[in-house]
Amino acid sequence: MNSETETGRPIRILLVEDNPGDVILTREALCSCKIRNSIRTVCDGEKALAYLHRQGEYLDATRPDLILLDLHLPRMSGTELLAIIKADPELMGIPVVILSSSSAEEDIARAYARHANCFISKPLDLDQFVKVVRAIEDFWFTVVTLPQRRP
User: Domain of 28: which CATH number?
Assistant: First the structure.
């Protein structure tokens, strides 16, 4: 995949993050990337599930090509959400990248046990954070071959 999906549309990213500062940083980093993308943000696991199932305020939501998921969320943890996504035949094929402030071994092991596609600890340094987000974008949309997406 080069700069867009097979249909020429921007890459769709769902960011599940409750920290407004991290949302801003991630959006800015992704907006400055070379690949056209469309970023949607929800602030907790329950809203993410509603988005993915196109329920409530998310009736017009589009299926994301990639989910960036924080672990420590209100109402439903990222770990719980990850388990639900990966158990759902309609959603399990969406790559889920854990982007968390945690670097605890138990969080990493729990995420992979629930079939996270990768686990990245958020750097505290602003420049490093931007580099990490750009590396995620580079890897998932220029290096990796993903299955053809549904609209």
Answer: 3.40.50.2300
User: Per the domain annotation, does 94 fall within a domain?
Assistant: yes
pTM recorded for the entire structure: 0.89
Count: domains in the chain: 1
Q: Does the pLDDT at position 6 exceed 60?
A: no
Q: How far apart are the first and last CA of the chain?
A: 16
20-31 helix and 126-138 helix, angle to the nearest 10 degrees: 50
Enumerate the H helices of the chain as residue ranges. 20-31, 45-52, 78-87, 105-113, 126-138
In angstroms, the CA 75 to CA 91 distance is: 20
How far is residue 21 from each of residues 17, 25, 40, 124, 129, measured CA to CA in Å?
10, 6, 15, 12, 12
pLDDT tens per residue, range 69-114: 999 999 999 999 999 999 999 999 999 999 999 999 999 999 999 9
**Does residue 2 belong to any structural domain of this protein?**
no
The answer as to whether 105 is a domain residue is yes
